[in-house]
Amino acid sequence: MAAEGFFSVDSLAGVHALVVDHDQACRDLLSSILRYCGALVTTTASSKEALTVMSIAKCDVVVIDLALRGENGADLMRRIRRLKPEQGGVVRAIAVSGRSQDRDAAVGAGFDTHLTKPIEPWALCRLVSTLVLGGPSAD
Amino acid sequence: MGRTEFPTDTLKGIHVLLVDDDDDARALLQTVLRYCGALVTAVASAPEAMETMHRVKPDVLLSDIAMPQQDGYWLIREVRALPPERGGGMPAIAITAFGHPHDVGRTLAAGFQAHLRKPVDPWELARTIASLAGRRA
Question: CB A86 to CB B98 under 8 A?
Fold first, then answer.
């Protein structure tokens, strides 16, 4: 049980989250957490697919693993930040990686914040809520 | 940004006919519409959409404009030529790609009631469909 407690189901209803991770198991875990909390979730395995999704439907938040194959997560973030606002350039963004020391580089690349694996599910959902819906602080 | 009131119920009981030749767009828009509670029939071409309309009656048509051979303008002409009891008066929404020259005036004059551009805001899409289907959005 998480120290901060449970994050209620449906709290993320009306949030479109894009999860980008080359590892299918990780992609499935992150998407199942966000879906459990009510979000509309789209998943992709690569930067190219992520940009395709963003050209079709607006996302409220992107959750990107920094260790993508080929182009890494920070490169993808920089490309997203170069998009026009109406193309998704201002989307809220969370970086995920296995090392807490990646945080500064992630923020430097344009991410709003960084989460270290193993991810605490309710912390992820609270963070999305804070970033997108302006809910109470995740800290 | 983002949140609407009870978005997963917004399109409950509404049958949407989705027409887009792009596999990624069709899959993603279908996911959005199903998330919002719609019954979705998704097809990849305008002629397939017409075949579908001979079999089942959608509440709202959501169609891409730029499609090979028969495009969204062809489709709306065919739909509007149908008698009302066969769906000729069905509300219709046009979708166009970012930066494409299709202007709103042309799609509306062709018979669409609304025009959205990609990337589509999922919640604006749901609200537009609900509103055209006569629902409180």
Answer: yes
User: Is any Cβ of chain B less than 8 angstroms from the Cβ of A86?
Assistant: yes
pLDDT digits (tens, 9 = 90+) for B40-97: 999 999 999 999 999 999 999 999 999 999 999 999 999 999 999 999 999 999 999 8
Average pLDDT, rounded, for chain A: 91
**Separation of alpha carbons A129 and B6, rounded Å:** 16
Its pTM surpasses 0.90:
no
Inter-residue contact A120 to A2 (CB < 8 Å)? yes
Write down the domain spans for chain B.
Answer: 11-132
Report the complex ipTM. 0.84
Chain A residues close to B122, C-beta within 8 Å: 16, 40, 57-58
Cβ separation A55–B119 shorter than 8 A: yes
User: What CATH number matches the domain at B11-132, 3.40.30.10, 3.20.20.80, 3.40.50.1100, 3.40.50.2300?
Assistant: 3.40.50.2300
Give Cα separations from A10 to A35, A63, A95, A125 (angstroms).
Answer: 9, 19, 23, 10
Pairwise CA distance, residues B118 & A56, whole Å = 5
Given the candidates 3.40.50.2300, 3.40.50.1380, 1.20.1250.20, 3.10.310.10, the CATH classification of the domain at A16-131 is 3.40.50.2300
CB B19 within 8 A of CB B52: no
